[in-house]
Amino acid sequence: MMQDLIEQIRTLAGEYKGMIIEWRRHLHCHPELSFEEFDTADYVAEQLSAMGYEIRRNIGGTGVMAVFNAQKPGPVIAFRADMDALPIMEETGLPYASENIGVMHACGHDGHMAVLLGTALVISKLKDRLCGTIKFIFQPGEEANGGAKCVINDGVLKNPDVSGIFALHMIPELPEGTIGIKPGYLSATDDEFMIKVSGKSAHSSEPEMGINAIMIASHVVTALDSVLSNNVGPFDVATFSICQINGGDAINVIPDHVEMKGMIRCIEKANKELIRSRMQKIVKMTAEAFGGSGEVEFIPGFPSVNNDPALTKITVETASLMLADKDDVYEIERPHMGSEDFAYYQEEIPGVMFMLGCAQPDMPTGSLHSPELNINEDALINGVKVFCGIAAKMCGIEEN
User: Fold this and answer.
1) Model confidence, pTM
2) Is 142 among the residues known to form the active site?
């Protein structure tokens, strides 16, 4: 990458730091839930329009997209940020804390949007140095298991066809000034399940007249403990958790039904299918052995984020140049067991997501999805520099 272009990006990102932080604080103060990001979309579109971009609205619901066209042939790439917040009561005490009671940007999406707005602003100043097309996608509903699919179905990757897409995610576990990345699997699937066990109701004074669904459920829970230990290899990554059990209405009545809910998280699709199959057999046969019946319903979640090796290499090389030191690029050893709907883009085209370190140096940062999350805003400029560096590496023009 051209050294003068690197320095130009660094200079511009620094000049716009105050504006980028202001964007983030406004968005943090006015969070909206999945597919309700109406004011958020208006605000994002307003900022992009002020930069000179033509805007496409209402993509996949409330999504917004701006397109940079250098008017010179070249690659077509995209950057994505998610817009939605979570139903969490904020407890940071910040002067720009959420004004929407019970709603908070507790997953860092306010930071993601500010980074992408900053990237769009810097790119708008580099038109003579770039070729090709760059799409800036602001996506609704990441937390609602559907936003990415919705905007993809609305054609954000088409006309012109995108050849590679990039995203980041705030991560409080890494210090500000760093990123974490790995080729291949970065996150897990997150399928929900509901187990229904049926028996026969009876009075507790006549237990022989009934079939106790709670007793069946307890044996099902014990039997399901074998799903991972006996079916998933010791070097594979998977978790299986029953997180909720409901059954019984009265202290003296044997219940006739129990419902149990939980999550399956794993990396390999084959393991997910195997776990599902074993669960169905265990639930059905255990319940029948005690005279009842059982069934499992699955609600598919996101696929695993699976980073393209070639684009990961580009991201690593770029971040090594744009951050303070090449050692600030950490290779993540194992996939994160959280989930991310960016994986849907990667089912269509090559893509990369990296983790942007945002830990506070001298105060608690909190964790993702917690009411105390308080990201280090210096991290936003690092995100802008890496995104713009990727754009320059892929679409930059060498000057004679």
Assistant:
1) 0.90
2) yes
